[in-house]
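Minutes, structural biology subgroup

Action item carried over from last meeting: produce the structure token record for Undecaprenyl-diphosphatase (Calidithermus roseus). EB confirmed the sequence was re-checked against the source entry. Recorded below for completeness.
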Amino acid sequence: MTFWEAILLGVLEGLTEFLPISSTGHLTLASHLLGIPIESDNFAKSFLIVIQLGAILAVLALYLPRFLRDLEVWKRIALAFIPTGVIGFGLYRLIKDRILGNDLIVVCALIGVGVLLLFVDRWLQNHKRYDDVDQMPLAQAMLIGVFQGLAAIFPGTSRSGATIVGGMLSGLSRRAAAEFSFILAVPTMLAASGYDLLQSASTFPKEGFGIMATGFVAAFITALLTVRWLLGFVSRNTFVPFAIYRIALGLVYAAFFLR
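Output recorded by EB:
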């Protein structure tokens, strides 16, 4: 992987991490187009995990005042992280060695979650009960954590897409579901990136950390712009365009890369 490829993938990560369209699916597809053998390159797999943290830290920069003052949000983050942590750490080796980079799983997840998002958005548009994360019952936060954990197992699902679906099923408005998805990403990706670096850093090529840092910074800067835009968009619109885009992308992906 070159530094220019790292910048390109970092920008793509920053653009897609918080949209319910699967950053991993886009990065896997882009890696194929760039000729990066993600299915067999351990460094490339770690790169795709760690640059997500760059995008996530953009949320920390934007939401730091709320993190510092809002105990109710912390309670819900902690409870949601429990099932995510159990699933993610318990299945880490399976996900890293066997699942990440699997084209069939990515295609099925892109299309399947696109259909689910389309259904949930239309079905629940008049059934929201909570306009703020603080109003959501604590037990519902754990349900959202389960959705996020399932997204970790199946690349192409979209962590943000899964948590937004889980949030809307729990009664959150579109904006509140998106906001909780953003906030919940912080401890999740801190843990995932840190754990992967502990497990894999010793195998990285000599220039690996420089390439990873380049993608990390590109993702951070791009995500700062994307988060603000998405919150404004979902305040005025539905998730239907994202659902349709996912389905179309999955079909294109299948046509070119499934054999």
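Discussion: DSSP finds eleven helices and no strands in the chain.
Next step: EB to file the record with the rest of the batch.
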